[in-house]
Inverse folding.
């Protein structure tokens, strides 16, 4: 029997790493035409997949790390190719050979060493909870584990969101606690960067904590945590009921347990995070919450729901430099201003970070605010 040619070996390895749909692609280029990079500096996803089918011969290494895993291409692919899985599998192969950008290598290394991608000390994780006197999770007393994500522990802007969430949940009588410094990153970004090994260790670590503490229900503040706990942890045997904060707020307001009463004089538009909307179909709850806040005039932007424009922070891009003018978030600010918005609301730490950067660098800091949905609800409680 003849030995397998190198390109067949590479293609088989991609399939084994999770890119099982590699041969399904018939090169229609819908992915390339759908990609948000087309608005700034086009990313030829069709070519990248074709090179993978041919064993990556001639691949130069730039396009692979530009994908934000927003899911637009997967949504529109006529063959139903799981393109994000292909990207993840190819990145995993590249990572094994050391061909991974230094900033991403540092982020993965920090997760391995400290349980977070921000080079923060583990002891600082959930330090915000101690200051707010949020108790350690106790299954006999608490219904929910509040999983705040890595960012509030190490990013001051994100910390305002967990402060608002704590205020709102307490006002509604929700019984919740946190796991303290023992918990680790959910691993969503690590997996999309291509480090399946580190992701597996995070699932085992967090899953063990959930079991040891009797956690059954999780409130996720980040869409990325929500997506991972709901869709990816079960693949490795860890199952919990997870609800995103926007869903819970809509339920609490709908049931009368939470009543926003202080009018907010603002024209608000909403940016759909990719991992909340396109990946998981959560479009209505955030809008229901915003429309329940008195004084708000709600306006929709041109690209919403399934067609929402990615902020540019997913897929590891949070740890990579994107020059001004090539940031998707630079395009989003003018779209919000075009409908007369004084507040651009969202429900994702990545989106807030990217949109805040664009707001400040575009000279629009006096024209519009970037707010998390939870912050607006907390403000409306007085």
């Amino acid at each position: 029997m003849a030995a397998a040619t190198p390109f067949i070996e590479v293609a088989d390895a991609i399939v084994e790493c999770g890119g099982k749909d590699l041969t399904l692609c018939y090169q229609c280029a819908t992915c390339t035409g759908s990609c948000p990079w087309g608005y700034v500096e086009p990313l030829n996803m069709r070519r990248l997949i074709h090179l993978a089918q041919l064993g990556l011969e001639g691949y130069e290494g730039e396009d692979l790390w530009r994908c934000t895993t927003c899911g637009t291409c997967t949504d529109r692919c006529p063959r139903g190719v799981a393109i994000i899985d292909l990207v993840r599998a190819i990145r995993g192969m590249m990572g094994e050979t050391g061909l991974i950008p230094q900033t991403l290598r540092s982020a993965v290394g920090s997760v391995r060493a400290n349980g977070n991608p921000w080079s923060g000390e583990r002891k600082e994780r959930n330090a915000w909870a101690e200051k707010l006197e949020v108790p350690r999770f106790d299954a006999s007393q608490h219904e929910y584990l509040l999983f705040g994500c890595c960012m509030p522990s190490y990013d001051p802007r994100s910390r305002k969101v967990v402060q608002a969430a704590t205020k709102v949940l307490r006002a509604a009588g929700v019984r919740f606690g946190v796991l303290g410094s023992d918990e680790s990153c959910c691993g969503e970004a690590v997996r999309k960067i291509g480090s399946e090994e580190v992701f597996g260790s995070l699932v085992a670590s967090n899953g063990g904590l959930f079991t040891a503490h009797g956690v059954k229900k999780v409130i996720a503040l980040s869409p990325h945590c929500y997506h991972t706990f709901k869709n990816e942890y079960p693949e490795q045997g860890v199952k919990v009921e997870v609800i995103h904060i926007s869903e819970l707020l809509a339920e609490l307001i709908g049931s009368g347990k939470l009543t926003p009463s202080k009018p907010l004089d603002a024209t608000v538009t909403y940016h759909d995070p990719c991992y909340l909307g396109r990946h998981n179909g959560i479009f209505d709850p955030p809008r229901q919450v915003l429309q329940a806040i008195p004084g708000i005039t709600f306006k929709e932007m041109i690209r919403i729901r399934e067609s929402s424009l990615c902020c540019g922070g997913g897929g590891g891009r949070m740890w990579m430099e994107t020059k001004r003018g090539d940031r998707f978030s630079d395009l989003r600010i003018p779209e919000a201003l075009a409908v007369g918005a004084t507040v651009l609301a969202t429900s994702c730490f990545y989106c807030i970070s990217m949109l805040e950067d664009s707001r400040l660098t575009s000279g629009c800091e006096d024209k519009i605010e970037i707010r998390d949905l939870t912050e607006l609800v907390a403000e409306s409680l007085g």
Observations:
- The longest strand covers residues 266-270.
- Residues 1-5 have pLDDT under 50 and may be disordered.
